[in-house]
Amino acid sequence: MPGPTWYQFDTVIQIAPSEPNDGAFQVISGKNVRPFQLTPSQQGLPFPIRFEELMEQFAQWPRMFCEWDGSFVWTGEESISSEEELRWQLDGNLYDRDDRLIYIELKGICPQNRLEQFLTACGWPQDSFMFGLTNHGTFLNEADFREVSALSEENFLKMTGDSLRKR
After folding, report:
1. CA-atom Rg of the chain in angstroms
2. What pLDDT, on a 0 to 100 scale, did the predictor assign at position 108?
């Protein structure tokens, strides 16, 4: 697969509790991962960044379109060779309570550097996140999330058909 790792996901991002309990191993997307076993009090912890601060950062990014209801779409192209660029897109919603960001719904397909730019704006790597897999009803740590969300070369080649190629 050319260039950096690409990810495809549909996730909910929350602040990870300081001492999450690991559940039983599961196989998700062919990967052996260990989801968190969480109590209600371990979910919905506030992010250190305020909702408005994050929205103001997003508003400065090229091709990031955001609304004050928390919805956003961020698109772009990424070079995978000297002759070819692929389109990527992230979209979702930010949710807040008492002026603090509580969780983020995020879905899309993007290269590693764009995922990391997004996460950094939200407080990563200083803050640990957990990633809820919408289709599996479970939360993973960052390493397991990246493992199950990374596109294999075969899936990357399928995804880079006409749908992602820049026209």
Report:
1. 16
2. 96
